[in-house]
Design the sequence.
């Protein structure tokens, strides 16, 4: 599955920080059977992803960028599934779910 993603970097509390979407964000698909897909690995290859989010470089406060993310998802897991976006290596509950429509 290919999903378009738009990111806006809001920065840190001091406003001097920067971020890189492909480093700082983890994007996976939560299938209807409870499994997650899109975390990488040999069973999760999408080929060349056009306008990939991984092509977006470092961003500073108020910067906006768009790109696509992809995950190989079995067809029986798509209906009722959702996308998960969270901060990479986060130790808190920054996980957000986006339903398919």
Sequence:
């Amino acid at each position: 599955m290919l999903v378009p993603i738009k990111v806006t970097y809001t920065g840190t509390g001091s406003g001097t920080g920067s971020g890189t979407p492909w480093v700082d964000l983890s994007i996976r698909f939560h299938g209807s059977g409870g499994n997650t897909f899109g975390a990488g690995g040999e069973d999760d290859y999408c080929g060349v992803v056009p306008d990939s989010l991984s092509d977006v470089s470092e961003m500073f406060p108020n910067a906006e960028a768009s790109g696509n993310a992809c995950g190989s998802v079995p067809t029986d897991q798509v209906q009722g599934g959702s996308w998960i976006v969270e901060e990479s290596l986060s130790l808190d509950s920054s996980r957000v779910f986006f339903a398919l429509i």
